[in-house]
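Key result, reporting period 2: structure in, sequence out.
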């Protein structure tokens, strides 16, 4: 290509103007070692093409010559299954201070999609650990349990190579308390509608949420001990095997703080009564089923909104919809 720039430029222009996706992808692939062949606007057009092969080859070019103009789009590709691997590699080729600031800005923005948020959380451990931890913990007030699960996984990655501080431990313990209370709310909600045939979908979703919450709580509570085989213990909890659950309870008893083990063990132990424990621990500070339905109606989780709305309509409880406006 470099032997005759004018001729090469003519051929390149012909291929680009042809609109032939395969030829354009091949051109980008062969040209990736000569980053000055394409202008910034041409690379931007490749990134916006919507064609994964062209986008992936363009990411490889950017990795060789990372420009700020492309950074936003590279981060957005973290949320695309077909592009995220090359997007991660490309992102790591940028100066770390610049890319981390942009990542944190995106993570903190309410306009960033869930898939991009998850993509950012998966790569954040490569950056400044202190800033990453602070950002991840601040993100754990999110209502979406899938995002909280990714947050806990991101913290696990970081603490495998970094000692947790006392200040961070206190924040994690506070999070465990908040998530435990969230679990107790769900147990009480389920208890109120457990024999209600109209509440089958809600109960199914509560079970799924409780499973996710248990996983997150166990992960957070064992952050100080990176040698714990987490997935094994989580399988024990979910199997509810009477021979294996005691091992998890033993882990919690030896790892969690005194205050938190009192909250968490009744949520894990199949023989415990979480509804009774909720009343003993929180008294009247547990949300009623109507308050829970209202919170689900306001949830950004579309399925929660749909099934709670369906339940309210089946019960002719339209007064609750009036509360939604307040």
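The corresponding designed sequence is given below.
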């Amino acid at each position: 290509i470099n032997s005759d720039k004018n001729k090469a430029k003519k051929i390149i222009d012909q291929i680009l103007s042809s609109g032939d996706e395969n030829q354009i992808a091949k051109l980008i692939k062969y040209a990736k070692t000569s980053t000055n062949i394409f202008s910034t606007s041409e690379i931007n057009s490749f990134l916006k093409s919507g064609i994964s092969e062209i986008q992936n080859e363009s990411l490889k070019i950017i990795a060789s010559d990372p420009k700020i103009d492309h950074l936003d789009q590279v981060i957005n590709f973290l949320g695309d299954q077909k592009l995220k691997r090359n997007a991660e590699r490309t992102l790591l080729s940028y100066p770390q201070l610049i890319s981390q600031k942009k990542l944190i800005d995106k993570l903190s923005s309410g306009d960033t999609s869930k898939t991009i948020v998850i993509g950012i959380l998966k790569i954040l451990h490569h950056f400044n650990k202190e800033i990453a931890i602070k950002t991840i913990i601040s993100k754990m007030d999110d209502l979406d349990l899938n995002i909280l699960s990714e947050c806990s996984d991101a913290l696990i990655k970081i603490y495998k190579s970094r000692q947790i501080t006392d200040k961070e431990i206190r924040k994690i313990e506070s999070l465990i308390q908040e998530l435990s209370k969230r679990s107790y709310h769900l147990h009480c909600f389920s208890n109120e509608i457990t024999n209600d045939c109209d509440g089958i979908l809600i109960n199914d979703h509560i079970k799924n949420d409780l499973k996710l919450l248990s996983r997150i709580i166990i992960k957070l509570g064992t952050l100080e001990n990176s040698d714990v085989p987490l997935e094994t213990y989580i399988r024990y909890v979910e199997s509810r095997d009477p021979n294996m659950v005691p091992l998890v309870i033993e882990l919690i008893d030896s790892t969690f703080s005194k205050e938190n083990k009192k909250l968490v063990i009744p949520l894990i132990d199949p023989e415990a009564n979480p509804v009774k424990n909720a009343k003993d621990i929180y008294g009247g500070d547990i949300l009623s089923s109507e308050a829970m339905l209202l919170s689900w109606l306001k949830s950004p989780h579309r399925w929660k909104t749909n099934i709670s709305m369906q339940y309210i309509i089946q019960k002719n409880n339209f007064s609750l919809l009036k509360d939604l406006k307040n």
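Residues 266 and 277 are 7 Å apart (CA to CA). The chain is about 70% helix and 0% strand. This case is discussed further under Risks and Mitigation.
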